[in-house]
Every structure is written in C-alpha cells, then in structure tokens.
Specification:
It is built from four helices and five strands, in the order ββαβααββα. Helix 2 runs antiparallel to helix 4. The protein has a domain of 51 residues. Helix content is 56%, strand content 19%.
Length: 99
C-alpha cells in the first residue's frame, strides 16, 4: 500500500498499486486514509494510555502452596486482553472495508 495525496495534499488515500506499477496490471484496491487513520489513532492512544501501560507492565505474582512464584494468572490475563483487542481490531477492519 502506498499513500496517494489528492486535492493539493488535503485528501489522502491508501492504494495498492504494486501489480499496476510492477506488471502493468490493474490497481487492486484503494481506501480513504481518514477513517483508517482515525481508527488506528484511537487504538494506539488506547494501547498507550497510562493505565494500559501500567497493566501491561505488571504481571501479578501468585504464591502457591510451596512458596514459589508463578505468572500463570498474569499470562492468562494478558491473553484475554490480547484477544479482546484483536476482536476489536477485526471489527474495526470490517466496518472500514464494508461499504
């Protein structure tokens, strides 16, 4: 994907033109950059919020009966958060790509 600017640089589009520029084939797809940039910005700000960073840096240590530490609870929490974010990202992609 490449960024293409129109209207004297006021409008941007993401365009897949590899086939066209390399082999003379048709352009495969193009999408306005504004909704993509809006969604990516929101997801990045959410991921980089102070509370999200604090949570991701903390792996709760749970002491078991013999006194050793384990991080299973922390890794399952991490996996749950990762799955939730992937699900949101998939829904965002669908909403952008569905006309």
């Amino acid at each position: 994907m490449v960024t293409v600017y129109n209207d004297d640089g006021r409008e941007a589009r993401y365009s897949c033109s590899y086939e066209a520029t390399t082999y003379g084939g048709p352009r495969c797809q193009s999408i306005s950059a504004r909704p993509v940039d809006t969604c990516v910005t929101a997801l990045m700000l959410e991921a980089l919020s102070p509370s999200a960073i604090d949570v991701s840096l903390q792996l709760p240590r749970i002491s078991n009966s013999n006194g050793s530490n384990c991080t299973k609870a922390g890794s399952s929490d991490w996996n749950a958060r990762t799955m939730k974010r992937r699900s949101r990202a998939d829904a965002t992609k669908l909403s952008i790509l569905t006309p």
